[in-house]
Structure formats: structure tokens, C-alpha cells
Amino acid sequence: xxxxxxxxxxxxxxxxxxxxxxxxxxxxxxxxxxxxxxxxxxxxxxxxxxxxxxxxxxxxxxxxxxxxxxxxxxxxxxxxxxxxxxxxxxxxxxxxxxxxxxxxxxxxxxxxxxxxxxxxxxxxxxxxxxxxxxxxxxxxxxxxxxxxxxxxxxxxxxxxxxxxxxxxxxxxxxxxxxxxxxxxxxxxxxxxxxxxxxxxxxxxxxxxxxxxxxxxxxxxxxxxxxxxxxxxxxxxxxxxxxxxxxxxxxxxxxxxxxxxxxxxxxxxxxxxxxxxxxxxxxxxxxxxxxxxxxxxxxxxxxxxxxxxxxxxxxxxxxxxxxxxxxxxxxxxxxxxxxxxxxxxxxxxxxxxxxxxxxxxxxxxxxxxxxxxxxxxxxxxxxxxxxxxxxxxxx
Amino acid sequence: xxxxxxxxxxxxxxxxxxxxxxxxxxxxxxxxxxxxxxxxxxxxxxxxxxxxxxxxxxxxxxxxxxxxxxxxxxxxxxxxxxxxxxxxxxxxxxxxxxxxxxxxxxxxx
Lengths: 394, 109
Ligand SMILES: [Zn+2]
Hints:
The complex is a heterodimer.
Chain A: E1 18-25, H1 36-51, E2 60-64, H2 68-72, H3 77-85, E3 91-95, H4 101-114, E4 120-128, H5 134-142, H6 147-151, H7 156-170, H8 175-189, H9 203-208, E5 211-213, E6 216-217, E7 226-234, E8 240-249, H10 264-277, E9 286-288, H11 294-303, H12 312-317, E10 328-329, H13 334-338, H14 342-358, E11 372-379, E12 384-392
Parallel strand pairs in A: 2-3, 2-4, 9-10, 9-11
Antiparallel strand pairs in A: 1-7, 1-8, 4-7, 5-6, 8-12, 11-12
Chain B: E1 4-7, E2 13-14, E3 29-32, E4 37-45, E5 56-63, E6 67-73, E7 82-89, E8 96-102, H1 103-108
Parallel strand pairs in B: 6-8
Antiparallel strand pairs in B: 1-2, 1-3, 4-5, 4-7, 5-6, 7-8
Bound molecules: zinc ion.
Zinc ion binds next to loops of chain B.
């Protein structure tokens, strides 16, 4: 059932229709011994090879990265990458949008092609988080919060713990239902050789893991990761095209929300993307949802119109978001199990969608013959969201 | 900072400093006493930055005028409890900040 406000209406927007001829990524790992630049180079070269595009043909390079200065004592990534690849004609820049840096870099690449300035744009995202221990990484990421939140020691898992506590109290879902999100995404990652976690887990494994931010436990939370992902955008069409890429901002301090279970930026970005692509939620066959925490998968599915408020948990319970369900969600394992190298994630979601729409996935990870894929990459706990729709051209 | 900011124009309230009111765009805020609120959710955070004690117990509480805050809270508090805001020490011990406490205890002061 589709909420009325998502029904397609009259709009001047038309689908973008740019080609996505090539994608590539590194396997996400807890610690990759290669440098941040080497990860960017590797993913970029894989995408260029997949697209059969030479580096000298690139008009613009768009690097997504959140915190290389903090994690790696590094800056100037886009220039280093461009020179290394031999993309001497290209313009280059880095895009920072916290955990949505990857999708924002892609958004910037789409805008470059839309403007007519680029015929061939390369978006590459990466983060190398292993240089910091968990407490330090938690501190780096918590610096995105409002000063008043920071003073309270608020971290990203803190927001997720509060939202989960509220959701489980407000609706009929129970703690085991929430664990099923992690179980599903780990099962999908088991069939993804690029995923950080390839071992299936059970509901009991989740419930018995250590507490991170009650009621959430370790297996409700994405890991810190090293990795990179890349995608080529061209003005010419390709078997898979970008139909929409839209973003929206939300409040900064999370408690300023009218409802703690709403993520207004995800709702606004999704709505704009549906309008641009001229589709409804029910047209989407496969979705990559920003499941940095299990609870986020439900909240975003509701914001995107895939379920009414307070009911997304039934999609998980009934297997409708499983790999063979009517809306496969996070077939690559999601942030939860594929891993979450911050600046790489938004592009890794698109890599997965392109593979899905081309049928370039092993049997255990196939979602059939999807026509439309949707990705949502969320900055922070919803400060900003980027929603992308891709389509397969028959 | 145990005060809530009230927009001088529309009366909208927020605990979080910003240059302009999110509801009407006005630029002037007045400090108000938030009074008592209701705890909407709680969490105990076990993975914390080095200078934050573990577990860090946090509550999300809503107050009059649609103003909500996430703040450290007493470990015995539960969702649904009526709370007030007391002064607390911030993570670096310098600025004063807020702590959620049971309303009844605050009222007895
Ligand atoms: Zn106002």
C-alpha cells in the first residue's frame, strides 16, 4: 500500500537518463593494508575498465570522503588521484557530506554531466578508518553533531538506541524482529565476495552480542571499514541509467525533529527522486537502504513510502525484503554486513544496484530481473539524505 | 544551560542554538524555564569517546512548546517518566550543561 502523497502527480521534472557504463569497488575489510589513495586508485581503475573508458577521456573527477584529515593525516585526494590515473584533462574536487559523502560525490558527477560541462564524469568514494581505534573513530564521527549534543557525549549509536527504544515501545515490533534485519543482511553478504562479514548469523547471535546503545547490540550496528567504490557517469545512455539523484537536508540537532521516528531529509529526497524518475515506490524492485543501524532500515523504508508508519518491521518479518521478496533490500549486505567505509558507502550502494540491474551477481544474491533500483545514503542520523534511482534499459 | 530558547516572534522553542528560528526565521530568542517534560526514550551507550564515561545514559525528553532535548539522565529513569532539567557538568568539565532528573526531586529543591 502506497501512501497517497507518493502517488505520481503532474511534474515538470523528467528522468535524468545518463549512462552508468562502469562500476568497481574494493572488497570492504576491517583493515586493508593499502593506503587510502591506493584504495581510490583501485576502485577507479576497476570502474574505468568496466566502462571501457580511458582515463584521458574523463572530464571531471568527484571524490567522496568524510575525514581523511582525521583518520589518515591526508588531504588533496582528488588531485592525487587524478594525477595518478593520468586523467590530465579532468577537473577535480573532493566532496564531504559525512556518511553520505559517496552519494554526494555521485550527485556532483551527475550535476556535472547535466550542466553540459562533463561528458564523462568519474565518482569515487573511499574511507580508511582502520587507522583509528573504535573510541577514536566514534569521537571523529560524533564531531558532526550539534555542540549541545556533543557536550552530552552523544554519538551516532546514541541516536539509534533512542530511536529503537521509541519504535519498539510505540509499535508491535519486538527486539527479535529488529534482529531479523541484521540476520537478513548478513545472509545476503554471505554471497558477496566484496563484503566485510560473510558469515551468516542468527537472531540469538544478535541478542547475545554486547550492548552498544541499548536496546541495540553489536550486531545491530555497522562496523568501521576500509574500502573504496567508483562509478562512471556519461551523457550517453548505457544498459543501466541514472533516472534521478536528489538530496535534501534536515534539522541539525536530532531532538529538534517534530517526531523522533521521522527522518525528514530521507522523506524529502525520496519524494523528489520519485518525481524526477516518474515512478512510485511500488515500481522499485531492489533497494539499498542506509542501514548503519538495524532500526534505520525500518525508518527509511517508511520515509520512502515502502511501508506505512510503524509497519516496516512486518516487511522484514514476512520476508518481503529478503533477497527473494517483492522488494529485495540490501542484497549486497548493506552497511551492516558489506561494511561502511564512510565515503565509499553511497557509491558502493550504486555499484550493487548496477550489478543487480545487469544481472552480474551470483545466484544466491540475484533479485530476478529488476527494472528499477533505489539507493538512499544518509549523512549522520539524517542531517542530509541523497536518494538515487537507477533503471535498466531493455 | 538548563534554559530553553523561545523565539521572540512566534514563540517556537528549541534547546539548540541557531541563528534563525526554524519555524518563522526570526533572529531573536529569549531564555525560558523549560518546566517539566516527558521522557520519550532512553538508551545506555556502552561505546563512548575516551572522555565520556561508560555507560553514558541518555534520554530524549519533550517539553512544552514542541521542544525536545537529548541529555544525560539518571539511570533509574524510564520512558514515560516526568523529568526536569538540572545543571550538569559537560564532558570537558568547563561549560555547564544539562542533566535530566526526576521532576519530583527537582521540585523539592
Ligand atoms: Zn519563530
